[in-house]
Amino acid sequence: MQADLQMPLKPLTRRQVQLLRAIASFQANQCCLPTIGELACELGISRSTTFGHIEELRRKKLLVSSPGRARSLKLTSKARELPGLDGECNINPGRGLARGIPLAGRVAAGLPIEAVEDKEELSLGSCFGNTDEVFALEVRGDSMIDDDIRDGDYVICRRSSVAHDGEMVIALVDDEKATVKRFYKEKGRARLEAANSDYRPIYSDNCRIEAVVVGLVRKL
Q1: Of 16, 23, 51, 157, which sits 20 to 30 A from 163 (CA to CA)?
Q2: What is the 3-state secondary structure (H, E, C) of 173-207?
């Protein structure tokens, strides 16, 4: 009887390691899984090249996905055990929020006040509560500019599957398109309103609330 021989798996390439790290980072810090297009953009390579690396990583049993779903690509337990991967990428978003910066006191925006130095620490967790449920997302685009949320800002979000009318939310439309908008519930559907008259409302009967926006961070 002839033995069933299998070709040995090739070692991971530098690009495949980058791809695994990108997927792990996206999964840890975003509210949804990445698409092939987003990964291609992140790594600065074509979609076809990205797809080829993904197929090879599937063959090596390091990635799994659900057929027909754009956002289902995730690491296997085997991938998470790779040296140097778990420590760099599989970060609980809440842990980073717990680390703070020195809060040195108060400064007046009106009449000057006495300068008294405090020795406290300011963290996003201390401002916004339970850090296991709080995370940040970088904003891309200007659809919320009239709410003073600009391209490149960071919105601070609290995980939630429900929202009240008028609240700013992170919503997943059609299971694959994440957006920040004002949420309004209508009969049989949701309306997602931009804060920019150049953008039309998004109407969807397949809208899932992932988080409510509770704060904003901006670099000056």
Answers
A1: 23
A2: ECCCEEEEEEEEEECCEEEEECCCCCCCCEEECCE
Give the active site residue among 46, 77, 181, 185: 181
Helix (H, G, I), strand (E, B) or coil at 140: coil
Query: Residue 132: what pLDDT?
Result: 64
Domain ranges, ordered by start, for the chain: 14-90, 129-217
Please tell me the predicted confidence (pLDDT) of residue 174: 80
Does 3.30.1200.10 match the CATH number of domain 129-217?
A: no
Q: Which candidate in 74, 143, 177, 185 is catalytic?
A: 143
At 6-34, the pLDDT tens digits run 434 457 888 888 888 888 877 766 666 78
CATH class of 14-90: mainly alpha
Q: Does residue 77 have an active-site annotation?
A: no
